[in-house]
Recover the amino acids of this structure.
């Protein structure tokens, strides 16, 4: 028996979708170009900066999805995770246990575990500034111009940790005029949001100052049904967040531009409590009636604090040559409580802290004339990622060892310094044929230490983590990862290692007709080498992961009303960083060694269509298919290494994704009304990377509808947005610390903590919101 989320099933959806996808792709490719020679007047020109220079989406030989401000507003898209609906083969979801930690996968490549030291596989950028950690990366969209999703490795221009792709969040530049924008939103679960943005010219045509503030609140979708701690907020899946931004722009001359930006976010939403998919065998914790209800023995508070600033200096040397310097400093801190077992007993509790900071510097030069362009630069990154967590098994400790409790405490830091040089050039070979060639050299050094040990007591990160708790003074766990320079058995320095790598890219573009381009490309990317943040012995580092990707695609505009962009891709993901001793039957084992023991492959197709039926009515379709699987996973045994790849599956990667959207604009005496609707389908997928996972999600669909309004004068605006109209229940994360066992009375063998711990976390239910705003 498998525990599968009971969502509505769509009979024959997979077969029908497969047939439709193939038919549409073939139809678009073999259609004649009779309309391609006409002027393209019905389709919007979409500009992107996927190659670090401004280009038309239709001219870029990369699979890119770009969603602009107008579309974001019309659809009521509030957070970056909703972007996944519009980008094929893309997963952007809230991570387990928090509202603001991001789980990102593109084409089956990403990183499930947000622990410090583990690097993401999808890069997140805000105005070309890299967001290094997933904590706080679920960005609320404030004053945004567009969001770009770049699918496939972006190693040549964006560097390490973009082996799956990159998400670019681009904010609006100031116009130089005095402007003010304020909006309020009310909605389901007592949603109450306020957003304010504005700008003023301090010196006309020279110096502008912009401000932004958002306060976002919502009650929980569910409740904590039981908690023995006093004075706890029992809302589950609630939202309590504020964010602020300051922007200063200085146009020193027509050719010289400076910008400084600061932002800060504080998220004090409660930690998320998981839904028990099985009754507890140790206490009265049955399966709750609502998937948003939970139990806990930990405090319910959670805190995520982010702040940072960036600066830009840009000099237009000539019409063809531009030089930029971009720098940044970012810090983040989060304290969270994850009750793995979701009971009121301290069976398997994990209070944790994450503390990160990083500095980046980039010098970028771009040049472009007819038939030739190039981008080149240097990049520097210096980051420190630290944390600690306590795996509290108090109930087990008291029952088995007659002690006050039992805790495995792990803490440490994983620090990185990297330097890179990159360049990419595009040039015409003939009137119809052009090429792009890119290369990046990266050198990286990491140092790390890990403390890891068992304590026969319940231990929390600091005093008063729970009311009245006093943490013992001094180090209570030994250092297990580091260097012993004196060979005296005492570790006296962090472990260190370094890597360097060249990551190339090359593409060939053929302009078949005025508005039809075919391209083929190869790109390589790598995810940084690292040390095991859960090390139990002084183990070596692991090498970087490497992805080689091949694409063949078409960018085309047919007549003045049909756009068809299609990409076929294949990728080879090598040296995947996994626990080298992979216990198939005991996934709860915490004493494991990290190694480059996995390889996987993926191939598929992505198709995006826009059809402007009339000036008022448009249709958009985004289709994705991927066949991804592990080709090798090595397990060490007493008889030597064996390949157990059949026991593993690519997580968070449905075979099919589809989005069908429509917009209708109606002009009236009271202003313009935009009616929008989309249906988003995700095929079944697994939450963990084991093929026999007990937490899988059936295929499901989300139906969303919106009506947005702008007054005739353009100063007043508003919208009604309904999300997940059919109230689908769908899993986005989970924990499995149990295995099936027909001989056990419960049907399962208990895992860590001695309980049947099988926990799911869910996406948002049906919500309706009303927004009203004013701007001048």
């Amino acid at each position: 028996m498998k525990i599968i989320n009971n969502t509505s099933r769509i009979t024959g959806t997979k077969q029908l979708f497969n047939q439709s996808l193939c038919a549409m792709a073939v139809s678009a490719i073999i259609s004649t170009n009779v309309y391609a020679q006409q002027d393209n007047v019905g389709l919007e020109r979409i500009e992107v900066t996927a190659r670090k220079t401004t280009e038309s989406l239709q001219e870029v030989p990369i699979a890119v999805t770009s969603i602009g401000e107008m579309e974001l507003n019309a659809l009521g898209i509030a957070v970056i995770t909703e972007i996944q609906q519009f980008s094929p083969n893309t997963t952007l979801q809230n991570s387990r246990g928090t509202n603001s930690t991001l789980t990102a996968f593109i084409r089956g490549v990403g990183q499930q575990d947000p622990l410090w030291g583990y690097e993401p596989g999808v890069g997140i950028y805000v105005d070309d500034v890299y967001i290094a950690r997933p904590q706080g990366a679920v960005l609320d969209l404030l004053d945004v111009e567009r969001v770009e999703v770049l699918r496939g490795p972006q190693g040549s221009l964006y560097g390490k940790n973009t082996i799956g792709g990159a998400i670019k969040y681009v904010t609006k530049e100031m116009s130089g005029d005095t402007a003010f924008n304020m909006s309020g939103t009310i909605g389901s679960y007592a949603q109450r949001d306020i957003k304010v943005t504005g700008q003023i010219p301090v010196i006309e045509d020279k110096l502008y100052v912009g401000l932004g503030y958002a306060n976002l609140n919502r009650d929980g979708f569910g409740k904590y049904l039981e908690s023995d701690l006093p004075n706890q907020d029992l809302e589950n899946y609630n939202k309590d967040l504020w964010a602020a931004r300051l922007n200063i722009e200085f146009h020193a001359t027509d050719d010289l531009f400076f910008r400084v930006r600061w932002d800060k976010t504080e998220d004090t939403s409660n930690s998320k409590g998981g839904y028990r998919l099985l009754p507890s065998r140790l206490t009265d914790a049955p399966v709750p009636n609502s998937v948003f209800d939970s139990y806990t023995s930990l405090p319910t508070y959670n805190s995520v604090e982010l702040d940072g600033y960036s600066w830009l200096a840009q000099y237009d040397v000539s019409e063809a040559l531009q030089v930029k310097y971009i720098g940044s400093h970012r810090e983040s801190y989060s304290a969270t409580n994850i009750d793995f077992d979701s009971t009121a007993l301290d069976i398997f509790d994990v209070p944790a802290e994450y503390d990160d900071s990083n500095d980046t510097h980039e010098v970028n030069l771009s040049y472009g004339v007819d038939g030739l362009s190039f981008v080149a630069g240097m990049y520097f990154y210096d980051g420190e990622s630290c944390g600690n967590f306590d795996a509290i098994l108090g109930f087990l400790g008291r029952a088995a060892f007659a002690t006050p409790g039992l805790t495995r405490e792990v803490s440490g830091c994983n620090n990185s310094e990297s330097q890179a040089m990159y360049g990419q050039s595009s040039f015409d070979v003939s009137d119809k044929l052009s090429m792009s060639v890119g290369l990046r050299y990266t050198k990286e050094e990491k140092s790390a230490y890990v403390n890891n040990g068992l304590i026969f007591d319940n231990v929390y990160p600091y005093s008063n983590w729970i009311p009245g708790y006093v943490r013992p003074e001094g180090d209570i766990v030994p250092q297990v990862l580091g260097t012993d320079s004196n060979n005296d058995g005492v570790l006296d320095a962090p472990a260190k290692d370094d890597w360097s790598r060249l990551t190339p890219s090359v593409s060939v573009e053929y302009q078949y007709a005025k508005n039809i381009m075919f391209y083929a490309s190869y790109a390589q990317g790598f995810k940084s080498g690292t040390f095991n943040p859960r090390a139990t012995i002084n183990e070596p580092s692991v090498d970087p992961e490497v992805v080689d990707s091949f694409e063949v695609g078409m960018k085309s505009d047919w007549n003045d009303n049909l756009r068809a962009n299609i990409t076929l891709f294949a990728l080879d993901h090598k040296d995947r960083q996994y626990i080298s001793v992979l216990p198939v039957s005991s996934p709860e084992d915490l004493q494991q060694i990290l190694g480059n023991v996995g390889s996987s492959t993926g191939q598929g197709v992505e198709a995006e269509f826009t059809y402007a039926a009339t000036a008022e009515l448009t249709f958009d379709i985004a289709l994705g298919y991927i066949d991804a699987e592990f080709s090798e996973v090595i397990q060490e045994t007493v008889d030597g290494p064996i390949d157990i790849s059949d026991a593993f599956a690519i997580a968070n990667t449905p075979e099919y994704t589809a989005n069908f959207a429509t917009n209708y604009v109606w002009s009236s005496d009271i202003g313009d009304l935009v009616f929008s609707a989309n249906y988003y389908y995700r095929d079944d997928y697994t939450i963990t990377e084991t093929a026999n996972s007990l937490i899988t999600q059936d295929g499901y669909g989300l139906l969303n509808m919106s009506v947005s309004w702008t007054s005739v004068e353009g100063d007043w605006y508003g919208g009604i947005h309904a999300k997940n109209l059919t109230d689908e229940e769908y899993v986005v994360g989970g924990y499995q610390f149990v295995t099936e066992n027909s001989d056990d009375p419960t049907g399962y063998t208990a895992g860590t903590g001695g309980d049947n711990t099988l926990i799911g976390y869910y996406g948002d239910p049906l919500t309706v919101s009303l927004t009203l705003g004013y701007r001048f």
The chain has one domain: 4-775. Confidence is low (pLDDT under 50) at residues 1-41, 583-589.
